[in-house]
Amino acid sequence: MPKMKTKSGAKKRFRLTASGKVRSGQAGKQHGMIKRTNKQIRNQRGTTVLSSQDAKTVKKFLPYG
C-alpha cells in the first residue's frame, strides 16, 4: 500500500500534543498591534489548543495524527 500524504499547509501550521489535541499558533498576531491592547498582545504569545470541532477538521489533513 502507498503512504498517505499529509497536507503541507497543515503540516506547517499545526502539531499534535501527546494526548492527541491539536496545537496551533495564536490568531490575530500578524499585524495591527498598535490597535490591540497590551493585555491582548501578551495573551496571544505562544500557541493555543484548538477546540474539538476545529481539531476534527484539522486531523483529516494530518492522517497519521
What does this structure look like?
The chain is α+β, with helices and mostly antiparallel strands and 65 residues long. It has a single domain (1-26, 40-65), classed as Irregular (Factor Xa Inhibitor). Helices cover 31% and strands 15% of the residues. It has three helices and three strands. It has helices spanning 8-13, 38-43, 52-59; strands at 14-16, 22-25, 47-49. A three-stranded antiparallel beta sheet has the order 1-2-3. A hairpin with a 5-residue loop joins strand 1 and strand 2 (22-25). The longest helix has 8 residues, at 52-59. The protein is elongated and about 50 Å long. The two termini are 18 Å apart. The relative contact order is 0.28.
Residues in helix, %: 25-40%
Segments where pLDDT lies below 50 for 5+ residues? none
Strand order of the largest sheet: 1-2-3
Let me know the average pLDDT. Answer: 93
Strand content: 15-25%
Radius of gyration: 15 Å
Number of β-strand runs: 3
The CATH architecture is Irregular
What gross morphology would you assign? Answer: elongated
Query: What structural category arises from helix and sheet content?
Result: alpha+beta
